[in-house]
Amino acid sequence: MAREARIEKILAHAVAGYLHQHANKKTLITVLKATLVNKASEVHIFVSVFPKEDAIEALHFLRRKRPEVRAYLQKETSIGRVPTVEFSVEQ
Question: Of 8, 19, 43, 78, which residue is the least packed, with the fewest Cβ within 10 Å?
Fold first, then answer.
C-alpha cells in the first residue's frame, strides 16, 4: 500500500473516532473517506449525514471543530506533520 493511501486510511479512522466521542447523538455522521491534496498539506474528509436534513448543521459543527480535530489527529496518530483538515458532505 502506498504511503499516501496508508496515511489517508489512518486519518479517516482517527477522525471517525473523534466524531464518535464528540458528535451529538441525534445525527449520524459517518466518515466515508479521506483524501490528501496539495502534497499532503491538506486532507479532505468526506462524510455522510443522517438524517439528510441535518447536513448543513453537521457541516457547521465539523468546520467549527477543525482545530480540535487537528489537535486530536496530532495526539492520536504518528504520521508526523498533520495536514490542515477540511470537511465535505457527500450527498
Answer: 78
Q: Which residue segment(s) compose the domain that 43 sits in?
A: 3-89
What CATH code is carried by the domain that includes residue 72? 3.30.300.20
∠ CA 8-13-15, rounded to 5°: 95
pLDDT tens-digit readout, 13-72: 999 999 999 998 899 999 999 999 998 899 999 999 999 999 999 999 999 999 999 999
b/e per residue, 76-88, with b = 16+ CB within 10 A? beebeebbebebe
> CA quadruple 1, 6, 44, 32: dihedral positive or negative?
positive
Query: From CA 31, how far away is CA 2, in angstroms rounded?
Result: 21
